[in-house]
Amino acid sequence: MKIMIRRTSAGLSAYVPKKDLEEPIIKVEKEDLWGGAVTLKNGWRIALPDLPRDTPLPITVEAKRIFDKD
């Protein structure tokens, strides 16, 4: 799915256009963001692609939602 990552005054935010959903990113797996998973405030986990650490924001990327097996 395509998501847009941007930096706001409150921190990082993710927007999913297909769902018209914008949520704050509350947890990042990797300090430099890229190549790891992020957790949105609504509980969604999203795997981000590997990109250079200095990739400018905002940016739209192809990402994958992670579904936890319970």
Put the structure in a nutshell.
This protein is mostly beta strands. Helices cover 0% and strands 50% of the residues.
- Which superfamily, in CATH terms, is the homologous superfamily? NifT/FixU-like
What is the name of the CATH topology? Answer: OB fold (Dihydrolipoamide Acetyltransferase, E2P)
Report the strand count.
Answer: 7
What's the number of structural domains? 1
In which range does the helix fraction lie? under 10%
Instruction: State the separation between the terminal residues, measured CA to CA.
Output: 23 Å
Average pLDDT level? 95
Protein name: Putative nitrogen fixation protein NifT
Organism: Sinorhizobium mexicanum
InterPro entries: NifT, NifT/FixU_barrel-like_dom_sf
GO biological process, one term: nitrogen fixation
Description of the structure:
With 70 residues, this protein is mainly beta. It has one domain: NifT/FixU-like (OB fold (Dihydrolipoamide Acetyltransferase, E2P), Beta Barrel). 0% of the residues lie in helices and 50% in strands. It has no helices and seven strands. A seven-stranded antiparallel sheet has the order 6-1-2-3-4-5-7, with no helix packed on it. 11% of the residues are buried. The mean pLDDT is 95.
From the structure above, extract its key features.
mainly beta; single chain; 70 residues; OB fold (Dihydrolipoamide Acetyltransferase, E2P)
What layout of secondary structure does this protein have?
Elements: E1 2-8, E2 11-16, E3 21-28, E4 37-40, E5 45-47, E6 59-62, E7 64-66
Antiparallel strand pairs: 1-2, 1-6, 2-3, 3-4, 4-5, 5-7
